[in-house]
Each structure stands twice: as C-alpha cells, then as structure tokens.
Amino acid sequence: MTPPLSRTSAHATPGKLRVSELLFEVPKDYTNPERGTIQLFARSVGRHEKPAAVPTEEDRRKRAQKPWFVYLQGGPGFGCAAPQNAPITNFILDKGYQLLYLDQRGTGLSSPITAATLALQGDAHRQADYLKLFRADSIVKDCEAIRKTLTLEYPAELKKWSIFGQSFGGFCVLTYLSFHPQGLREAFTSGGLAPIGRTPDQVYKATYQKVIERNKAYYLKYPEDVEAVQSLCFHIKSKSGVPLPSGGVLTVRGLLTLGRNFGVHGGLDFVHDLILRAKIDLAQFQFISRPTLAAIERALTFDDNVIYAILHEAIYCQGVSSNWSADRVGRSFREFQWLTGSPQSASAVRDGPLFFSGEMIYPFLFDVFPELQKIGPAADIVAKFGDWPDLYDEWQLARNQVTLYAATYIDDMYVDYGLAQETVKLVQNCRQVITNTMYHDAIRSKTDDVLEALFALRDDSID
C-alpha cells in the first residue's frame, strides 16, 4: 500500500465543506500481489474552518485528526455521490467526525469496470478471473489498507474508524466484522444485513415473495395500469422489440424488469409515470416517442454499471455457483412465467396483470443492451463459477465485540426481513432499529430519521 498518489483540496458550497480528493494504489489481488495494482479514488470531507487567530502547526494537526467515518455505497457497482450531494454529510460532520467517501474498486473513479476496460484483460476467461477480485472481501482489504495509511501518524485512540454500509455496503460491513474487526470502532448498516449462510436460490425464493406483494400494491394504486401494461407489451411484441436510443432493444421481458424500482420511496409512482408516458404516446402517435424511450432506457440499463449486472448474484455465493439463480427461481413462480420463452414470445403476454420483477439480474439482459452484450461471455463464466471464498466468518461474528447498529426495514424488497433476522442471531452485539414506515432507500429519502434513530441507539438516548 502506497501513500495517496495525490491530494487536491477544494472548498465546496453549500455547507462550507473542505473536500480533498485522494488516490491510492492497492494490490489488484491480495492473495497474489505480483499481479499488479489498481487505483482507488476517495474523497475526504471536513468542515472548512476559519479560526479567529492564526493556528499553530500543532493546532492544525489536532484539527485534522478527527475520528474517521467511512461510507460504503450500495450496489454492487455504484460509486459515491459528491459530498455536497450526499445526504449524510452534514449530519455526520456535526457529530464530530471527518468523512471518507470511497468509490469501491471498479466503481466511480476507482479503476472503473466497463466493457472497454474489461477488454484490456484479454479473453472472456481472463475477464472473469479479473471480475472475481471485486467482491466484498477485496473491498474490505482495500478499506484496511487505506485506514492504515490515513491514520499512520494518528494517536492510538484514533487509529480505528467507524464505518457505515448502505445495502451492499452493509454486506461489506459484515465481511469487515468477520475478518478485520481490529480496524473498527463501531459499525452501522442501513438495509444491509446480508443473508449469511443462505444460497442465492434461498435468497431469491424469499425476495420474489416481497416483489409479488409490491406488484399487488402497484396495481391497487394504479388499477388502470393493468390494461396499460398489457397494451404496451402487445405493442412491443408486435414490433419484435423496439429500438432504444443508445442501440439497445426494448423487449417485453426487459420492460417487466422495471419493478426493481418498487422497493424505494416513490418507486410505484416512478414506474407508473413511465407506463403513462408510453400509453399517451401510443394513443397519439401509435409509436413510443424518443424522450419516453430514453426515460425507459435510463430506468432499465446497466450499461454504465456493469459490475452490478455481473456480480449481483455472486455477492450471495460462498462455495457455490449462482448459475443464474434469479432466472431459475423466478420460473417456478406463476406470476413470472414471462421469464420462459423468447423475449417477445406469446407466453410473455397473458390475461390479467403482468407482474414486474424486482432486484434480479437475468441472462437475457446481456442480449438487449450494447455494453452488456460485450461482456456476456464473461458474465456467464462468473455465473457458473462455484469456488467462491467465504465472505463471512460465523465463528468470529458470534464473538463480535464491535457494536453493530442496524436500520432494518420490515418491507424491504431487496434484503428480506426474515433472512435479516436470522443474521442478527449470528452476530453478537448487533442492535437494531426496526421499522415498517420506511423502504430500502431511507438513508436517501429519510436521512435524518434513519441517522437520528441509529445514533440514539448508539448513545443510549432512546429513553
């Protein structure tokens, strides 16, 4: 691990933040450092202070050495927002921390994985071998390497840091607690209690049930969309797919993956708006306009976040292959029989409401989006790979001494509540805020509510 390659400070508004952009060089493969390095990007954030008197060097050093609070984004495959746009920034800074927003390896500006950058690795097998290095185990090792670098000259009581994981970031927190708890002072998760010990098939059997519930809620709120979705699917089927602005193809099955939005605040309304736009276009013009197609495409494509599409099932794998689990499990549900047959087949369109899928990745997505098409062979190799190392140490978690504060959502469509409670039983010193008034993205939609509840739990101030 080398020191930061560069550090560029800038003052951002609003909020008078002091933001430093950091680059780090870390091993590509921690089990074989000879394979070379990759570059990581992070932003450190503190308050921009203007003291009344000129500070001494010792004053500057002490002000700079506040306890670190690290944010790990959900995903996998998404970088962090700029600090001034991240909802937790001001709340956490007001608690006396300095923040580190880390773009996890392969995301954001951290050696991003795209079809083009992946092609640099060679053929599909080499690409798949490279992709295997981008799971939570490697992400946590990156965090530890960065922690040791940033706190090298810190006093002993400040060398440990606090960590917050949203969704997949919470999965990384549990990996951190499993293998490197000595680096942590405290840990927080939001919708991030991974289903430890469960196979991908078991995970999807549970999450499909919640997706069915959300579909029923959607059609209860928008009963007119039963016919609107059917009509839109018949239109797409009659055209054998509709070309999308960036070169992809809108198929019936592709459209029905819009339900991944059902698990967030406002998600039902978001999907309805897209269906309404298409419905009005068809009524006026007998075709779907480019702006509507562009909006649908933005909601569907993973071309700018290919890690999500490739590794989404792998985040559940320990010693087993996923083998396109969501696709196989989904076909066992009557509500998702549209997964069978070709993308525009008659079996995809039937009487009654068509149910949308949720946070599931299917192999057919690699046939209809340009960037995913290029990496389809590597994705198939990853899906069939079974020799995944463990992501969690249940023995260590049962003896965990770092308190974990978890915000858990009963109506979470992405991280099943029942499986999350099984995980809680495996982790010593786990304390929860449990609510049925928030959805999975509450850290963005109801930021203060989530953070105030978690810190009240930490500070024992609930009474």
**How would a textbook summarize the main sheet?**
9 strands, mixed
Strand content: 5-15%
Give the N-to-C terminal Cα separation.
Answer: 45 Å
Secondary structure category: alpha/beta
| CATH structural architecture of the largest domain | 3-Layer(aba) Sandwich
pLDDT < 50 runs, ≥5 residues: none
Figure out the total of helices: 19
- Nearest-angstrom radius of gyration? 23 Å
String of helices and strands: EEEHEHEHHHEHEHHEEHHHHHHHHEHEHH
Average pLDDT score? 92
Q: CATH superfamily assignment of the largest domain?
A: Alpha/Beta hydrolase fold, catalytic domain
How many distinct beta strands?
11
**Anisotropy-based shape:** globular
What is the helical fraction, as a range of percent? 25-40%
Structural domain tally: 2
InterPro entries: AB_hydrolase_1, AB_hydrolase_fold, Peptidase_S33, Serine_prot/Carboxylest_S33
GO biological process, one term: proteolysis
Protein name: Alpha/beta-Hydrolase
GO molecular function: peptidase activity
